[in-house]
Amino acid sequence: MRRFAINALLAGLTLTAGCKKDVQVQTPAPEAHEETNAGAGRIAIPDAVRRNLGITFSKVESRPVASTRRYPGRFEVLPEARKDYHAPTPGRLRLQVKELQDVEPGQVLFQLEAPRLRDLARLLSEASAEAREAKAQIDGLPAFREAHKSHESVLQQSVELWTSRVQELEALAEAGGGRANDRAEARASLMAARVALAETQEKDAELGSRERELRSRLQGAEEKSSLLKREIADLQSAFERNKETSAEVTPTSEILVRAESRGRIAVLEAADGAWVEEGAHILQIVEPGKVRFRAAIPQGDWGVVANYRVARLTPLQESGAAAAPLMATLRFLPEAQATTRTIDALAVPTETRLWTQPGMVGYLEASAADALSVLAIPKRSVLRDGAKLIFFRRDHRAPDQAIRMEADLGADDGKYVEVRSGLVDSDEVIVEGAYQLLLATSSTLQAGGHFHADGTFHADEAEKGKD
Asked: Regarding predicted confidence, which is higher, 358 or 189?
């Protein structure tokens, strides 16, 4: 055992003697230890050490720590961000897009070779022909009515003449003159003229009725044509349904269905070339940028957060500028879940980031609008060294150095803790890699030493000699 200990000590001394001290850590003398823990201890953290130790920084934030409630949740697509497309009629499917493809408004999604369009085209042709025929007859009525009016005028004059002739012959007969045959012929001619006039007037009424009938037929044919054209337009292109183009629709046996909005093909159910029935689900388009965050609020917290409308969304792992919190508008569902004793909160962020993709998890931080904000740092950055709580602040004047600080803490919300002194809002503290720095500076865990470029820690030779 003694030989084993001596060999191990020699191996350690050889390794220490042969290594290059890339990053030196000053080990304070016993009398300076209290000063170091009070904030004077510095440790070099050049780029190589930061990379190898995975050191990350977090900026000091102004947060309403005391009143903040934090709840885990997930991002999901807004209901209005999903758009389903179905087959408007039975037909043979011809896909024009692929799964996960981005599409633009108006882009053709799929085609349908539909026999229904041929039937609609035939009906439209018949309705158009009926409308043309009725219109042609209506256009010919004025000339016919004008000739009829002239004929009626002539008959009216004939009636007036024969009436005058009959009156003359009757006056002559009262005076004892004239012939009875002349009077009889005059009365017969007057009667015939009146009958012809009556027939002409009846024909005029028939012409009026005929015109009304033709106009009704024309209106019916035009309405039928309009409905058929609209149906054809709806079938031929879903994108055209909001456009006034029904009069220009050319019937074919092909239906074009277009994207109504920008998005991504999220679901593609039907196969290219398949026969689909009317109403069959073909695909779904999702607008990825339209998301919301859903979190479950315990009923015990409801009395506190019921009136909260200010929310912040944070990712599961916070590092880098892209992971900065997002402000969101907070709303609550009107009905709670009895089985889980929670009520869902929905928060719509003001913008989107990489970590706000649907399905990703994060945290909802709810707080009162008038809550007091204080300087706060992540609780993970605070470490215990014996009886003291410490953290490492990055020196803003020398970014390659970290300063060990004794923590003066206040309230915390489970993830962030208030720092009452020693920091300003422009400072940064070390989160990941802080424990390795604690090992290098602690008097209770391990003696001082130095870091190599590979991120490993080596005790100083003097300290190892003491061991």
From this structure: 358
